[in-house]
Amino acid sequence: MTAQHHPPLRVGIVGVAYAEGTHLPAYAALAQEGLVELVAVATAHRDTAEAAAGRHGIPRAHVGFEALCADPAVDLVDVATRPSRHRAMAEAALAAGKQVLCEAPLAPTVADGEAMAAAAGERGFVDMQSRFWPGITELRRLVADGFVGRVDNVAATALYPTFTTERAIASSAWCADASHGASSLRVHGLHTADLLRFVFGDLSDVRGSVARREPLWGGRVPADSVDSAAWTARTPDGAVCSVHTSWVARFGAGFRLVVHGSDGMLLAEAAGHTGHFPVRLSGARTGDDGPRELVAATGAATEPFTRLVRALATGETADVPTFADGLAALRIAGAVEATD
Length: 340
Hints:
By secondary structure, the chain is α/β, with parallel strands linked by helices. It has helices at about 25-30, 45-55, 65-70, 85-95, 110-120, 135-145, 165-170, 190-200, 305-315, 325-340; strands at about 10-15, 35-45, 60-65, 75-80, 100-105, 125, 150-160, 205-210, 215, 220, 230-235, 240-245, 255-260, 265-270, 280-285, 290-295. The strands form three sheets. The chain has an eight-stranded mixed β-sheet. A six-stranded parallel β-sheet has the order 3-2-1-4-5-6, sandwiched between helices. A two-stranded antiparallel ribbon has the order 9-10. The radius of gyration is 20 Å and the shape is globular. One of its GO terms (molecular function) is oxidoreductase activity.
């Protein structure tokens, strides 16, 4: 039996600043496989659009997202901009009949997310790519197969030094402004929330607390976005769950997700944000001497996004986060903020 052939997924990307180091290398790799064709790019200015097109061999450069969304050569619009701009861009693409892949978080508010999800139907996907590390997919499989028995306790920490570093401040200082829709709760926190939903199902009884502990990034950039958050929830089976995130944790040790059950434990770890750092999985069952490595932390930073887009290009989208998943994550953030 021969593999089903799919024509290349023709992608147009809106915004290149973040995408340059993440999305564009993945599209180049998938183009070599014949799965993707990057056909268009749009930025707000002609010089930046044409420069990006020239650097990456993209045939069509558009000024403004509206022109790209109307481009008949584009099948999927990749919205790689800050959250406050997502709704208008996604709705324009959807109105033009395109599929949409939107950066996370989906939107700055639950209301925006609801409108986007309603407009998208089955055509909207969110770049919560952490699901696609082999260490995470194996964690999910083992939990479902009963490796730990009855799940009792789940604890996740995502503590990063991101905005204590000059490099991050210089490249992403816009994250300091809450009006743009990004925060530790809504970026790293929602990637973590999506992983928990992916592994365990919908979370309930969400409550928590948020803080703005670092008012000046690098001593010069005023910051009013949430930089630290902690919250608790229940899994569908009643296990107690906790999450603690920060992007101003000096010497922050990265990501850690531990699952304790009646028959064992599983531990997923990454040296940094799970969107870009490979996940190591270890575990132990009753009777073992201690945890052993089950999946090594290997893979390039662009691997999970590449896997996500490959799934879109081949139509194997069962595990690709949708706008509904993005909305569910936004509702978790809203519940945390509402109980603070």
